[in-house]
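quick one
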Amino acid sequence: MKKLTFLLLALVATVAAQAKDFIISTNNSSLMLTAMEGEALKVRYYGDKITMQDFDGTPKAWMDAYPVFGTSYNYPSCLQLQHSDGNQTLALEYKNMTEQQTADGKIYRIEMQDKIYPVSVIVCYQTHDAQDIIETWTEITNNEKKEIILNHYDSGFMPIRRGDVWTSHLHGTWADETRVTTEKVEMGGMYIANTDGARNAHTTHPELMISLDGKPQENSGRCIGAVLCWNGNYKLRMETTDQDYHLFFAGIDDFASQYHLDKGKTFTTPKLAFTYSDKGLGGVSRNIHKWARKGMIAHGDRKRDILLNSWEGVYFNINEEGMAGMMKDIASLGGELFVMDDGWFGDKYQRNDDCTTLGDWVVDKKKLPHGIEGLLEQSKKAGVKFGIWIEPEFTNTKSELFEKHPDWVLTAGGRPLQYGRGGTQVLLDMTNPKVQDFAFKVVDDLFGNFPDLYYIKWDANTPMENYGSPYLPKDRQSNLYVDYVLGLEKVFKRVREKYPDKVIQACGSGGGRTNYGAMPYFDEFWVSDNTDALQRVFIQWGTSYFYPAISMGQHVSTSPNHNTGRNIPIKFRFDVASSGRLGMEMQPKEMNKEEFEFAKKAIQEYKGIRETVQFGDQYRLVSPYDNPDLASLMYVSEGKDKAVFFAYKLRSFKIQRFPLVRMAGLDENAMYKIREINVVNEKRRSYLDGKTVSGRVLMNTGIELKFDDYDEFASRVFELIKQ
Ligand code: GLA
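structure w/ alpha-D-galactopyranose:
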C-alpha cells in the first residue's frame, strides 16, 4: 500500500507557476488553456486535436476557464459566493498546476486563489484518451475563519464559437421520457433545469448535444456533447450576449440551494464531461457510450442477463406459487433471471397497492410463507437467478417505519405533509446519517442474509415535495437539495463497497433516475414505465443519445399494452426490446402457444447477438423523428466483424415507399454474410437472407427493406458476420 502511494505521488508533476500555454488532449480532441501568474486560468480553444505547433494559428477564445463573479466585466459566471465578512466577490489568480498519469489518460489540477481571501478554487480536468472524453470539475476550499455561502457553483464552462449552432436535448414526462428536442441557439439565453429533488430525468436530462455546423446530422458535422454527472437538481445554460461566443455553463441548480460551506471544508462540484467529434451526433454518442462502458457504469464489461420482471404480469398480486410459476416460465423460455417487483413486503400493513408499507422491508409471510429463502430455492430449482424490488429512501405514512420514526421524513417545517404516490408516500431525510444507515441496512439485510440474491431493482417514486430537513440545522436548510444527493451517494458507495459484484438497477418511476451521477453504482436503468413497443422506439432512440444499449433495460410486455392499449405483434415487441438489454415484463402464461414458441426462439437469437448489441458501437440510421414511417439502427462490434441491424415500420399505409437504408460502421472492404432473425412468416423472409454482401454496398448503396402493406408494425432484424 505504501509503495503504491509513493508511486502515485511520484507521478504527480508540479508545473512551475509561470505563464504557460498548454493543451489537454485525447486521441482526437484538444482543449487549449493558458495559466499565467497573477491571472485567472484562460480557455482558448476546444475541438479537433491540435499540437503546440498549431497554437499560434488557432482562433483563441481567451476567456476565463472558470469565470467567477464580481470583479470583471459582468458576463455570466460559474461561481458566486459570499465570504464570511459578507463580501460577494471573487478575483482569482493562478497558483500552480499538477499533472498525473492515470490508466487511460491524465488528471490536471489547476489551482487558483482569491487575491485577497483565503478561498482556493482548483479546476480539474481528467482525460479518457481513447473515448475522447474530458471531464471537468472544481474543488472550492474555504480557508476563512467562518463559513462561506456558495450562491452559484457550476461544474464547468465552455465557450462555443457563434455560428449556425444547434442544440439537441431530451425532455418528456413519466411514461414518455427522453423525447428529442432540437433548436437553434439564438441571442439571449436558454436553459435546461430540473428541480424534482429526488429524481432528475423525467422532464429533462442533464446532457446536451451542441452541433456546430448547422442542423444536427447523425453521422457528419462537428458536435460537442456535454454530460453532467449528478443525481440531483441541475441547470445547463447557454447564454449569448454581445460576444463572439455562446457561453455554455452546467452544474447543480442554485435554486433554493445556497450552500453553506464550513471553514476548512472543500466543496467538490459534480463532474461535467465533454466530448468532441466530427462525426455528428452519432460520433458523440459513441464516445459517450464507450466512456460509460469502460469506466462509468457498474460492470460495463459484463454481459447482461435476460430477465422476467413480475410488475406488469401480476402488479401487487405477489404469492409464492405465482412467483414460482413465473420463474419456471422464464426458465423454459431460455431466460436467466427473475425479478420479483413491488408487493412482497410488510408485516403489520400489507402492500396490496401503492398507499402503504414502504419502509417495512420484511417479507410478507401471508403472501410468501417460505420467505425469500423459499423463493431462492424455487429459483434454483427453475435454474434462474433471483432479484427483488426495493425503494429504500421512501416510506408511506401508513407504515411501521413512519409510526416509529416520523422525524425521519422531510417536512416543510410545521406545515402539513404533502404526499406523493398513492397519496401517502413521503421522502426520508437522507441528510440524516441514521436514515443513511437505515437505507444501507435495507440492502445489507437482503444481500447479507441471502447471499444468492443476485439483483436489486432500486426505485424512487416520489419527488421532494416537502422542502425541509428535520436533521439539518435551521441555518443550513438551503443545503438540503445537495446534501440529500450526497447522503444518498454515501449509501450507494457503501452498498457498492460491500457488494461489488451484485447487479443493481436504478429506476425512478421509470426513467426518472437515468443519469450519470447514479451510473457508477448501477448496472442499468429502467428507462420508462411505458413498455408500448411503438412509443419505446422513440424513448430508446432519445435515451441512446447519451446512454449505451447495455444500460437500457427494455422489456417485452403484453398486448394490448397496459399504458397505451395498443396491439402490437410479438415479433415487433421482441425486435424493439432486443436492441438493448432484453427482458420481459408480463405473465408468460397469458401468451398463446405461437407467441410462447416465438418468444423462446427470439430469446435464443438474442443470445447470439447480445454481445454485439451490448458492447458494440451504435449507429442510428433512420430517425423516427424525421421519418414517420420508419426507424432503423444498428450495432457493430469493435473489430467490425459482427453487426446487428434493426428496422421498424412505424405505421402502415397503402403503397408505402421506404428509402434504401444505408448501413454504417462496417468495413467497406469486407464481405458480410447476412441472416435474417426472428422471422415469423417464411414467405416474407428478406431477399438479403443468406446473401453475402460487401460493406461498401451495404453502406453506400443501402438496402431495400420491403414490408407488406398490411403488416402493421413490421420489423426486420439482420445478423451480419464478416466472412
Ligand atoms: C415504479 C416503477 C415500476 C414498478 C413500480 C412498482 O412505477 O417504475 O417499474 O417497479 O414502481 O410499484
